[in-house]
């Protein structure tokens, strides 16, 4: 059997014995139609099962129906960003929008055009990313998933978590579990997340009179470099009895470095991550982490952009993202030394 024929606005006009313009005005609440005519057209359309075409509506509005998703360079393989993308895709689909993953290329200025997109979602904007200036010049609404430390005014909306509060909660948990000297495997401060984690850790150390013990890695790096940074931290500061990892995957580097040095987790040292992901659930021991709700982050970003495009919101607007601490065996209470 063939596909059923889609009812068109022309079919409604013919059945109601009116013009196509009259049908359009009646269904869109426009024009100066008599109430009886408007009601009759609406009834005929409902009886025929007519549904307005999203594509036709967008053409009248001068829109493409596509939005872009821009991720940090070399981030596509990280669990967090894949979940952000999936959440954004789900929300875009629910709003009849197509989600396009934006390329990260030196010739982006020549390749990216506002004719192709109605709006953009930028995830973890980086101070050092020159493509952001190109995106900001497209004259379309842009939503940021996490704050922009450089030029926040270029974003019509932002979805952000209280990362400092989440890290303070994590550090408090480690202290309650018996940690007395906590180190940080940190991130370069060119994103709001990396800056927030470092600031929260420094505040914590200052409040307790502990010198900061930090080894830092780039925002997106390799597993080998995270391991090397973790191993250097343990080598330089043997007094550490707990380590917090800012980068995704960093906690596993700390765990491997500890095993190499004969440090038992959690008996000798506690480990926790500021970013939860699937590999932490199956690590031995499973590793405590902050759930940053990446799918919800992506969904909030796409929903906020859809609201801006449809006029349901006016920028600048901020939406708060909840986080939660997930306690696992890597931070079981330590016995006093």
UniProtKB/TrEMBL annotation:
Residues forming the HTH lacI-type domain are 7-61
**Domain of life according to the entry:** Bacteria
Signal sequence range: none
Give the Gene Ontology MF terms in alphabetical order. DNA-binding transcription factor activity; transcription cis-regulatory region binding
Which SUPFAM superfamilies is this protein grouped with? lambda repressor-like DNA-binding domains, Periplasmic binding protein-like I
Keyword list (alphabetical) reads: DNA-binding, Transcription, Transcription regulation
UniProt cross-references to InterPro entries, sorted A to Z: HTH_LacI, LacI/GalR-like_sensor, Lambda_DNA-bd_dom_sf, Peripla_BP_I
PROSITE patterns associated with the record: HTH_LACI_1, HTH_LACI_2
Could you tell me which Pfam families the record lists for this protein? Answer: LacI, Peripla_BP_3
Q: Which PANTHER family match?
A: LACI-RELATED TRANSCRIPTIONAL REPRESSOR (PTHR30146), LACTOSE OPERON REPRESSOR (PTHR30146:SF153)
Q: What is this protein called?
A: DNA-binding LacI/PurR family transcriptional regulator
Recorded source organism is Nonomuraea endophytica
Q: What is the lineage of its organism?
A: Bacteria, Bacillati, Actinomycetota, Actinomycetes, Streptosporangiales
